[in-house]
Amino acid sequence: MTVPDLSNVDLTAASRSAGASRTLRGYLAEPDGAGPFPAVLMIHEAFGLDHSTVRHADRLAAAGYLTLAVDLFSDGGARRCLVATMRSLAAGEGRAFTDLSAARDWLLDSGRSTGKVGVIGFCMGGGFALLLANDHFDAAAVNYGRTPKDPDTELAGACPIVANFGAKDRSLPGAAANLGAVLDRLGVEHDIKEFATAGHGFLNDAESGPRLLRPLFRVMGVGPDPRSAPEAWQRIEDHFAKHLKG
User: Fold this and answer.
1) Which 3-state string (H, E, C) describes the chain?
2) What is the predicted pLDDT for the residue at 214?
3) Which residue segments constitute the domains of the chain, with CATH numbers given?
4) Residue 137 has pLDDT above 70, yes or no
5) In Å, how far are 92, 144, 145, 193, 242 from 169, measured between CA atoms?
6) pLDDT in tens, 70-120
7) d(CA 113, CA 91)
8) Of the segments 19-23, 143-147, 205-209, which one has the largest average pLDDT value?
9) What tens digit of pLDDT does each residue of 16-39 get?
10) Residues with Cβ < 8 Å from 37, sequence gap 6 or more?
């Protein structure tokens, strides 16, 4: 799986902590104007920092957010980093979390941030965004992300969460209802919606992933859903406006 290098910022100087990637890069999308702006840390899908991620970041920048899409595969690409990154997600600790913390600090130290920072993730990144919701973020947007194994512990004290799921997502059956029940129980402010016509990856505006697998993805209902995506994006922007701009 080859993903083009779309990064435009070097975050390595901010990631000197033990266990961090030797090199860390990302794509920074900046709003027009001098700022300062509320900031958003964006976490990509399992396919890596691709053109869809870049367009997601540009969209949030156009809405007024200093948006950094960190490349969790900076140290060798998806072939070398995907398994370790997924293990980090499953464990709730490790290099990926160290890198994400460094990226957040880079945003806050950029001189262009108001100090308010949100996190947004898609697919694998949605799982990371959930786990980061109680780690010094002001708002979280979770898109078809898996609920952690021990949600009552790992989501306790989380910031306000907006989440979007697809009813046709075969990889996450019942995920929207399950997450809603957990957050109700924990008293975490949340807004969760399952879209009837959507599957996994429905916020993308083009097919993603290896070309050889795309026919299989279509059969599995993975891919863009232009009927659902506009409302889901509006929910995200409304959520961030309330908690990061308010």
Assistant:
1) CCCCCCCCEECHHHCCCCCCCCCCEEEEECCCCCCCEEEEEEECCCCCCCHHHHHHHHHHHHCCCEEEEEECCCCCHHHHHHHHHHHHHHHCCCHHHHHHHHHHHHHHCCCCEEEEEEEEEECHHHHHHHHHCCCCCCEEEEECCCCCCCHHHHCCCCCCEEEEEECCCCCCCCHHHHHHHHHHHHCCCEEEEEECCCCCCCCCCCCCCCHHHHHHHHHCCCCCCCCCHHHHHHHHHHHHHHHHHC
2) 65
3) 9-245 (3.40.50.1820)
4) yes
5) 24, 8, 11, 13, 28
6) 999 998 777 778 898 999 999 999 999 999 999 999 999 999 999 999 999
7) 31
8) 143-147
9) 776 788 899 999 999 999 889 999
10) 31, 64, 65, 66, 112, 113, 114
**Nearest Cα to Cα of residue 114 among 65, 59, 63:** 65
The candidate with the shortest Cα–Cα distance to 45, out of 148, 126, 163, is 126
Tens of pLDDT, residues 70-83: 999 998 777 778 89
Residue 41's contacts (CB-CB under 8 Å, 6 or more residues apart) are: 68, 70, 100, 103, 104, 107, 117, 118, 119, 120, 132, 137
